[in-house]
Amino acid sequence: MTTRLGVIGHDGYDGLAEIIALLVRDAPGYGYTLAFEEDIASYAPGHPRLTRPDDLDALIALGGDGTLLRAGRFLSGSQAPILGVNLGKLGFLTSCSHDEFPESFAAFARGEYAVQPRMAIDATTRTEGGAVGVRLRALNDVVVHKGGFARVLRMRVFANDELVSAFAADGLVVATPTGSTAYSLSASGPIVFPTFDSLIVTPVAPHTLALRPTILPPDAVLRIEVEDAPEEVLVTADGQVGTSLAGGQSLIVRRSADPVRLVRFPGNSFFTRLRRKLSWGGLAERDR
């Protein structure tokens, strides 16, 4: 049986051509057919274009964390697992490094890996009358922030229609556990184990000492309202796509019905990545 394998990538990384050449050479021997997204199709002439997520059995993301986040949004709820290959420096979310890829790809083809479901979130703008506007999907976070104005936003956050807090801040991050180590962490949010489903609400530079990040259950439905807003309030998903929040609109954020499934290999645990890539613990691993 042929397995359909999609490939997306970031053309700005060294090593992309080498990895694609390896895939083109070895994939047929493992029973894979390949399809490449348009931006990297020139590296694999003669192969079909990647167009529909429901045509895939698995997806390879070649780049960094940003490429993997884009892959998660491309799947749009499809349960194909993502094998992320780090071609850059950090690669916190990826499955393996560039140097590890030949061995990791062989292990993947043999089924020697685990699939780790990661909670995603959906965000929807709504008018005062309840009309649905723009829909966004994110694996890391949804952020409400100002445009080019040097002033704070006054916001109210509700969970299941109950007021959580009213405050002034530079912005607000609603993160998944996967996104707890991204922008939310930079805004002093907590680190949450990636499979502990929850919603992390982290104000950005709040104008009070009494407000702290909050962890809410995964079934909470958040409504974010911005009061006395400047001309433009922005909403971004994973820092890559977004929309504006017009006057009178609110933002509804909830758990997505479909998780993003990441490929994990033995020895690449969450705490290992924290220590190696984010210097978790503050000291070098000197007692190994």
Provide keyphrases for this structure.
single chain; 288 residues; alpha+beta; Rossmann fold; Tumour Suppressor Smad4; six-stranded antiparallel beta sheet; 5 helices; 15% helix
Query: Per DSSP, what share of the residues sits in E-state strands of 2 or more residues?
Result: 35-45%
* Order of helical and strand elements: EHEEHEEHEEEEEEEHEEEEEEEH
CATH topology type of the largest domain? Rossmann fold
Strand order of the largest sheet: 8-7-18-15-10-11
Discrete helix count: 5
Rg over C-alpha atoms, rounded to the nearest angstrom = 20 Å
Low-pLDDT stretches: none
| Coarse morphology | globular
Report the count of strand segments.
19
Which structural class do the helices and strands define?
A: alpha+beta
Sheet of most strands: 6 strands, antiparallel
Number of individual domains: 2
The CATH architecture category of the largest domain equals: 3-Layer(aba) Sandwich
Broad CATH class of the largest domain: Alpha Beta
Percent of residues in helices comes to 10-25%
- The whole-number mean of residue pLDDT values reads 91
CATH superfamily of the largest domain: Probable inorganic polyphosphate/atp-NAD kinase, domain 1
Distance between the termini: 44 Å
Describe the structure.
The chain is 15% helix and 36% strand. It has helices spanning 16-26, 65-75, 101-109, 183-186, 270-278; strands spanning 3-9, 32-36, 58-63, 82-86, 96-97, 114-118, 121-126, 132-138, 141-146, 153-159, 162-169, 171-175, 199-204, 214-216, 222-227, 233-237, 241-245, 250-255, 260-264. It folds into two domains: 3-118 and 259-278, Rossmann fold (3-Layer(aba) Sandwich); 121-255, Probable inorganic polyphosphate/atp-NAD kinase, domain 2 (Tumour Suppressor Smad4). The strands form four sheets. The chain has a six-stranded antiparallel sheet. By secondary structure, the chain is an alpha+beta fold.
